[in-house]
Specification:
This protein is mainly β and 269 residues long. It contains 3 helices and 15 strands. It starts with a helix and ends with a strand.
Length: 269
């Protein structure tokens, strides 16, 4: 079960100048301006989320933008997500998976994937899943966990993995709809979101008191999720200058899976 938590993250997702700890702190004043990718990249952010399903705490998700890396002769951004299961939950055991996305920002200011892979840390299976984007041939090549391999047509702005975590922030609170192609589970699917511009006050652990948030409602098209996932989800973002992803609620077979921000760190670069 925990190995599928990265799919839940897809549907989510989704301070002051320098914060040295994960303690509670006030956030910058509300901002009606949409962030650009360069605004987000001007900070080093670290996120930690708790994942719950009913009364069960399934585990934790940590998201970090790592140092830029050289890939195929050009510099790419490197986003890493680590998922750790809660070994105390019956029948779950220990699961540690890392998901890596190398990406760049296209001419329209949208992050697109160049290379995505998954490392199954607890089983010592590295690059267990791989998606490679060939924009010269307009093809996406993949290798999945069962070692199946194939090629799909590339549809821009093409993404895989957790790039939706960044993409969704660009539109949160805008009052505009957004749509993103996502390659997952051997197929091309889409994530569509309706991004409200209405303010909603909510409480989250990293911040003092209630904070202003924006709600986005979304659905997936041609994406098969685990546990009876219906394709509909809700996500909340901080109404600040960077639209910090705060929470995602995904409808599954017998209720809601909830990802909620519990720690947040921001450092000005």
């Amino acid at each position: 079960m925990p190995k599928h938590l990265n799919l839940i993250l897809f549907f989510g997702f989704y301070a002051l100048t320098t914060i040295s700890t994960f303690a509670q702190y006030p956030y910058p004043g509300n901002s009606k301006n949409q962030p650009l990718t360069e605004d987000i990249f001007s900070f080093k952010e670290t996120f930690k989320y708790e994942v719950k399903y009913g009364f069960f705490k399934l585990g934790w998700v940590e998201v970090t933008l790592l140092k830029d890396t050289l890939y195929n002769g050009s510099i790419k951004k490197h986003l890493m997500t680590e998922i750790r299961s809660n070994s105390r939950v019956p029948f779950v055991g220990t699961e540690i998976d890392q998901f890596h996305s190398l990406f760049y920002v296209n001419e329209n200011g949208i992050p697109v994937t160049s290379y995505y892979w998954k490392d199954n840390i607890d089983e010592d299976k590295y690059k267990e899943t791989e998606y490679t984007f060939d924009r010269e041939l307009n093809e996406v090549h993949y290798k999945e966990e069962d070692d199946t391999r194939d090629t799909l047509d590339l549809v821009e702005p093409a993404t895989a993995g957790q790039v939706i975590f960044l993409f969704s922030r660009l539109f949160a609170g805008s009052g505009e709809n957004s749509r993103l192609p996502v390659y997952v589970s051997k197929e091309l699917g889409y994530i569509e979101m309706e991004n409200s511009s209405e303010i909603e006050m909510r409480k989250y652990a990293p911040f003092k008191g209630k904070v202003a948030t924006y709600l986005s409602k979304g659905k997936t098209i041609d994406i098969d999720g685990p546990f009876g996932f219906s394709g509909n989800f809700r996500a909340w973002f901080l109404a600040d200058d960077l639209r910090v992803p705060l929470e995602a609620r995904v409808r599954v077979l017998f209720g809601n899976a909830i990802i909620r921000l519990i720690e947040y760190k921001r450092e000005k670069l």
